[in-house]
Amino acid sequence: LSKDEKEILVLRIVEGYSINETSKMLNKPEGTVKSNQYRALQKL
Question: Is domain 3-43 given the CATH code 3.40.50.720 in the classification?
């Protein structure tokens, strides 16, 4: 997984943050967070 994908999975799944909260923390659009999370989960 890429650095971004790992970071998103940790924030979303391990830490339990929402898409909105994660996007604000990473300064990325919500759509980017959703697609990166989906791709990361597909790789696992």
Answer: no
Q: Which two tokens stand for residue 3?
A: 């650095």
pLDDT at 36: 97
The candidate with the shortest Cα–Cα distance to 42, out of 9, 3, 7, is 9
How far is the C-alpha of 27 from the C-alpha of 14, rounded, in Å? 19
User: pLDDT below 50 — which residues of the chain?
Assistant: none
- Model pTM? 0.88
Spatial distance between the Cα atoms of 43 and 21, rounded to a whole number of angstroms: 23
